[in-house]
Predict the structure of PTS system sorbose-specific iic component.
Amino acid sequence: MIQWWQILLLTLYSAYQICDELTIVSSAGSPVFAGFITGLVMGDLTTGLFIGGSLQLFVLGVGTFGGASRIDATSGAVLATAFSVSQGIETDLAITTIAVPVAALLTYFDVLGRMTTTFFAHRIDAAIERFDYKGIERNYLLGAVPWALSRALPVFFALAFGGEFVQGVVNLVKEYQWVADGLTLAGRMLPGLGFAILLRYLPVKRNLHYLAMGFGLTAMLTVLYSYVTGLGGAVAGLIGTLPADVAEKIGFANNFKGLSMIGISIVGIFLAVVHFKNSQKVAVAAPSTPSESGEIEDDEF
């Protein structure tokens, strides 16, 4: 059972996250952040991060260019995490039966939010003609209200009244095990699908060597990290048998645990610096060859 204060906090967060995504852009409107906040409110941070991270990877290659709307994976992460924790639904099943359908459905609320803000846009135009700065400022701030309600109201009603319906759907799915297994498999495939969408629109063919390098370095550092972890565990066990003052002076137990990510970060910084220096040497010009089908060229970002 979801408590009233949990519903209130998640509703307020849902209202804020879309405004943050459109203005401040502090990543508070991302699915992984939504999973983190919802997991924190519901008391199960692991479930929240797993669902939020899965949906983050799912929409990794999806953007809102121009006035286009995309699926609302953030609200999907909120509802999937809340119902998964409160009703004991498996995370993979919650993603496919709750998060993805909700994310797709709330696309229409996104369109509704965009339409209603035009009312305040016209009021701002009128205030500009009158040189009414206070009116411009006031209507600009009021324009955030439809955006906030487009997320807050669906999340509130779903959390307040949708628990029995969600549980009924999940129970119906579980009666047919093959359906549940298929949905679970689909949920596990969503991050891979997100990566595929991202690679489809990036200029991969022209930078295939970078992709191969990143894959190779990650694979090598993962293997290296496994050996370093074993070495660190062995040394920690050895130090544990020593007197406390001697062990503290050595301080060797946890020195290797961050090696993998540090190595990848260093390589990434190196490649970024190389790219930056090369871009300073070459004048910006339109490509002389036709772009790859469906790819976004560098000068289009």
